[in-house]
């Protein structure tokens, strides 16, 4: 117990000193945008390697069930057929779409044929998930570069990157075997393609492919369709996109996405008489009746708590996400309300505005879907918000900026604060301390 406290105090002191050192370097113009990006990437990689190496096998969220899905495909050369089973069988993820599992199956198949032990196969698959996160981070950087935000909008750019790199719950998910990781990469790819003033028909085809792959990875990723639809509609009504270009964009992207999803839907109908498997999936959860007020409280508390600070098989290891993230979100909401009243323009440039507002619509759809799940099955987890993670970071940072925290060194405070928080969470997670101040 005393050793745990000492480790946390030492971590806090060292982290605070490094944070102050970063501020000093930034003020003296000795640290550039590129240095900050590299620092975020390195810290993100190191913390994920620690989580992947130190978390016992099967002790990430739903990890054994996700592993079983991959193992089934590798062994049987076919997709599993979902049936209502007891959770102990670890087959309850079989209702999930297959792209994530198909992507990782070759790793399992090669390792299994080579006689690699199961524990080591787990580690190899965890490493693949860290690579998926790294690609997501790189694409996020490229998106902000394309938008020109590192020059004009550093606070939302670095605030979002800090969350993508250092959010503890995302560190845990992206260092384990979990299909919540890959949709974020696909949605970030869509974000990158939409962050452009002239999108040609070939790009719309790629966007449609990415939307289809997202839905074929995880159904909750379907909110990306709202992102694309809002972008197209905004372009037509606000940015005077021609009707011809609007129709072509809609038919190309929508046709490819729906075409891909229809393959999965046809298989589901064949085996289950249900296209999306929402009803069958919901049977996995007990759903005692509750009042609307109870659903709202469950939605707000569990979403905030698990989004900002949770890890483990059933997210049982938590810091006080409500105390940490809840305060940040409260200040951010106040900032946004003030900006609406003052009619402040959050972003300059037609494309930045179109891109951001479309992302806000995706986030709203994401939140409504989570609330519906809270009401129907009583299950709320922070990772359900991950499809909109890029925009959660942006909106949080912009809200804090509008709240009055708009200073030259604010980007460094985001990076330094999230770094300190992520390292403290990691130390606390693997020392299993019970220090009261965190709860």
Automatic annotation (TrEMBL):
Its main location: membrane. It comes from the Archaea. It is found in: Cell membrane. The keyword Ribonucleoprotein does not apply. The lineage of its organism: Archaea, Methanobacteriati, Methanobacteriota, Stenosarchaea group, Halobacteria. GO terms for cellular component: plasma membrane. GO terms for molecular function: pentosyltransferase activity. This is Glycosyltransferase RgtA/B/C/D-like domain-containing protein. The keyword Magnesium does not apply. Keywords: Cell membrane, Glycosyltransferase, Membrane, Transferase, Transmembrane, Transmembrane helix. It is a multi-pass membrane protein. Signal peptide: none annotated. GO terms for biological process: lipid biosynthetic process. Residues 124-236 form the Glycosyltransferase RgtA/B/C/D-like domain. Pfam families: PMT_2 (PF13231). The chain crosses the membrane at residues 6-24, 36-53, 121-141, 153-171, 177-195, 207-234, 246-263, 315-334, 355-374, 380-400, 412-431.
């Amino acid at each position: 117990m005393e050793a745990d406290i000492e480790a946390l105090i030492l971590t806090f002191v060292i982290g605070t000193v490094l944070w102050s050192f970063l501020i000093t370097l930034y003020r003296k113009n000795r640290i550039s945008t590129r240095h900050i990006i590299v620092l975020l990437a390195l810290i993100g990689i190191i913390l994920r390697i620690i989580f992947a190496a130190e978390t016992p096998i099967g002790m990430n969220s739903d990890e054994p069930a996700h592993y079983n899905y991959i193992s089934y495909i590798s062994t049987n050369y076919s997709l599993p057929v979902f049936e209502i089973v007891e959770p102990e069988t670890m087959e309850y993820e079989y209702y999930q779409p297959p792209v994530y599992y198909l992507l990782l199956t070759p790793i399992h198949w090669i390792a299994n044929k080579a006689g690699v032990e199961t524990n080591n196969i787990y580690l190899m698959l965890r490493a693949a998930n860290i690579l998926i996160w790294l690609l997501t981070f790189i694409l996020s950087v490229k998106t902000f570069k394309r938008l020109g935000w590192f020059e004009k909008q550093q606070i939302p750019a670095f605030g979002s990157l800090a969350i993508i790199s250092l959010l503890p719950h995302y560190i845990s998910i992206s260092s384990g075997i979990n299909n919540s990781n890959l949709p974020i990469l696909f949605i970030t790819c869509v974000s990158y393609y939409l962050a452009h003033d002239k999108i040609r028909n070939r790009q719309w085809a790629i966007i449609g492919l990415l939307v289809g792959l997202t839905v074929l990875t995880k159904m909750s990723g379907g909110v990306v369709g709202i992102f694309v639809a809002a972008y197209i509609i905004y372009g037509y009504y606000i940015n005077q996109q021609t009707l011809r270009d609007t129709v072509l964009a809609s038919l190309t992207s929508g046709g490819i996405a729906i075409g891909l999803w229809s393959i999965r839907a046809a298989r589901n109908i064949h085996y289950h008489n249900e296209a999306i498997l929402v009803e069958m999936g919901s049977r996995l959860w007990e759903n005692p009746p509750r009042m609307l007020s109870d659903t709202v409280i469950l939605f707000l508390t569990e979403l905030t708590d698990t989004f900002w600070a949770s890890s483990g098989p059933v997210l049982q290891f938590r810091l006080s996400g409500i105390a940490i993230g809840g305060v940040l979100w409260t200040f951010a909401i106040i900032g946004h309300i003030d900006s609406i009243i003052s009619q402040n323009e959050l972003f300059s440039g037609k494309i930045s505005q179109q891109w951001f507002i479309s992302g806000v619509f995706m986030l709203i759809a994401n939140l409504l879907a989570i609330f519906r799940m809270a009401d129907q099955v009583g299950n709320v987890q922070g990772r359900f918000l991950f499809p909109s993670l890029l925009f959660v970071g942006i909106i949080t940072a912009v809200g804090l900026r509008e709240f009055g925290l708009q200073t030259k060194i604010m980007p460094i405070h985001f990076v330094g604060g999230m770094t300190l928080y992520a390292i403290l969470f990691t130390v606390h997670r693997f020392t299993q301390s019970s220090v009261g101040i965190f709860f």
